[in-house]
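Input/output pair, single chain:
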Amino acid sequence: MTVPEINIWAVVLATLSTMVVGSLWYSPKVFGEYWMAKAAVNRDTTTSRGAWPIVVTVVVSFVTAWVLAGATAIAHDFYQGSFLGDAMITALLLWAGFTAARMITHDAFEARPAGLTAVNLAHELLTVLVMGLVIGLMGV
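Output:
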């Protein structure tokens, strides 16, 4: 069994990029106020949880970046295209097949507002595309 070569620095930077994207996306001036209202998130309750949500975000973002880097290496080996192009296509396909498909299903059963689903899906798409950009530019 061959394990794909992964650039750990690309994974680390891709992980950090999620913090930047999320901080901007969910800021009050962008989608933060809308998201809090539609998701019924209380600012005081969120603040009282401390750093735990950030720690969770960093850990799961690292896992996502690692998987994306590995999947990109496999796709690149198969398609033999540009590493950047393969990273972007892989990010898009993984988002569509896993993130978007699963989120839409869960939100439909939970009767979440379509606008909330759209905001969260767009955030996730931007997040994985930025990860793909970082991974694609840094290569293996």
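The radius of gyration is 16 Å. The chain has a mean pLDDT of 94.
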